[in-house]
Design a protein that fits this description.
With 106 residues, the chain is mostly helical. It is built from 4 helices and no strands.
Amino acid sequence: MLIKIFLAVSSLSPYLKKLLWKQWYQFLASHYETKDWLFMNYGYAPLDDRFETVTLNESDQPDRYAIQLYHHVTSAVDLADLDVLEVGSGRGGGASYIARYLKPKR
């Protein structure tokens, strides 16, 4: 019943739909057990030793696997001094990693 009301109200206008989904997302994120939740991806772990280990600050170690996925995907291009847009950045952890470690222009 609630989902029908939610969908009906959100169909009234694109602005209202965006607002409702944003609030729903924030509600779910704020009720997640881990308050420092930054990444929404599963992560990446190489299966053999041919791949480089990402050197991280101690504070980034808990998110190692999620960060390794960003590293694996972005390692094909040197992002230094480039304009970078991350689409679907979730909680911002990947964008933060890219900005702090890979040094794009913006």
